[in-house]
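Weekly puzzle thread! Below is a chain. First person to post its structure in token form gets bragging rights.
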Amino acid sequence: APTELSNHMSLRQIFETHHFLAVRYIFNEVNYFALIDKESNRIFLFNWEFDGSGGILNDLDGGTRFLPKAYYTEDDREYIIGFLYPYQLKDLISSNDFKNSSPKYPEKKKELEKLANSLKETDNPVLMIVRMKK
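Winning reply:
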């Protein structure tokens, strides 16, 4: 359950990785996600919305922005996890923003289109796993 910090702010989620403190919160009715680098104290701030907009920019395949929901480690590597619903992915690949995007890996953009086209809107959510850089 959210924690009310004031009349204008409520904490939604907080988790810690080896290198970051991750915080999802609402301030003045705007949703935010912050990654705080524990070593340098740099803060990376992103807006987020329940409709899948906002979050960390995905410049690898032009896919949806990423909003982490959880964290885990495996073999000393850190991963953050999110999900999106098939209709969100289908809406994304049909958008002009996606069609006109120039991701770092164009072949991955084609794979993402293939995945989206293989989904039915009633399918289960798509699990997104992102490996964090060391």
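Puzzle host: Confirmed. Bonus trivia for everyone else. Residues 106-118 form the longest helix (13 residues).
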